Inverse folding.
């Protein structure tokens, strides 16, 4: 064999080996890809079926997206292990590698694991549920979903807010819905020349005439401060959480009209300028 024939022989050998490997692994690869695609489609259907079944069973709406996400992740993990086995990766070796890498993965995904644990705590202790108006991490909104890792809020400005479950479970959460009512805090300033009793009566009448203001607990009106240019009244009606903004805006508007009708002045800052000639 001369120097020219040797590379050709090696190339033929490599080509034959590649051909043999192709005959062995090509069908497996095609089958594994088909299995992966079909498996993902089936998992999507199963997840929807689980959610629909929970809806029919009248399960707590907060639990439905959480369990749906959990089922989806578990089934996908099993699917990927099965596909790896079909390609030729030893399942026992694959699981052993996952186990050995568990610590490293755990360290790398500390935040994700904390968020998952936070989601479990939210499911168990239920500080809030879907539909509740809450405030957490400086954000106010209605709970739309509690997922495996995150809680989804819809703000009054129709913004979608995603808050990690770890933050909500370890931080403070204000739930405005759980008590079934919420107080609207307003401060109304009137002139020092206004009669206090008349002003209180006018403000209280506005609250009593608003059909979204709760009768129990009774609305409150009282003098809260003697300010620089006004006597400030604390106006404190209660309403249902979902009526908060309706009451806030409608009461403000009605108060302005009522004060004008009764000739009760609303002061505004004024400044007197004196010119002194040198």
């Amino acid at each position: 064999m001369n120097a020219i024939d040797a590379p050709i022989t090696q190339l033929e050998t490599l080509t034959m080996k590649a051909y043999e490997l192709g005959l062995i692994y090509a069908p497996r690869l095609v089958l594994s890809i088909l299995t992966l695609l079909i498996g993902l489609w089936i998992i999507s259907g199963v997840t929807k079926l689980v959610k629909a079944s929970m809806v029919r069973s009248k399960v707590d709406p907060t639990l439905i997206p959480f369990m749906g996400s959990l089922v989806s992740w578990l089934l996908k993990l099993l699917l990927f292990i099965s596909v790896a086995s079909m390609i030729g990766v030893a399942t026992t070796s694959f699981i052993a590698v996952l186990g050995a890498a568990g610590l490293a993965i755990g360290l790398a995904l500390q935040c994700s694991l904390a968020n998952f644990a936070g989601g479990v705590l939210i499911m168990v202790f239920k500080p809030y549920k879907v539909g509740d108006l809450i405030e957490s991490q400086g954000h106010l909104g209605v709970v739309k979903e509690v997922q495996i890792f995150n809680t989804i809020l819809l703000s009054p400005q129709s913004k979608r807010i995603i808050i990690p479950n770890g933050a909500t479970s370890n931080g403070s959460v204000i739930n405005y819905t759980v008590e079934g009512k919420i107080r609207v805090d307003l401060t109304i300033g009137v002139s020092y020349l206004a009669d206090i009793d008349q002003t209180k009566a006018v403000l209280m009448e506005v609250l009593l005439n608003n059909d979204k203001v709760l009768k129990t607990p009774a609305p409150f009106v009282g003098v809260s401060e003697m300010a620089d240019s006004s006597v400030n009244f604390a106006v404190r009606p209660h309403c249902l959480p979902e009526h908060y903004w309706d009451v806030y805006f409608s009461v403000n508007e009605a108060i302005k009209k009522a004060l004008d009708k009764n000739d009760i002045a609303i002061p505004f800052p004024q400044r007197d300028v004196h010119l002194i000639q040198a």
In short: The helical segments are 5-56, 63-87, 91-108, 110-125, 165-170, 196-208, 244-261. The CA atoms of residues 221 and 235 lie 5 Å apart. The beta strands are 133-136, 139-146, 150-154, 160-164, 173-175, 182-183, 186-190, 220-226, 231-236, 238-239.
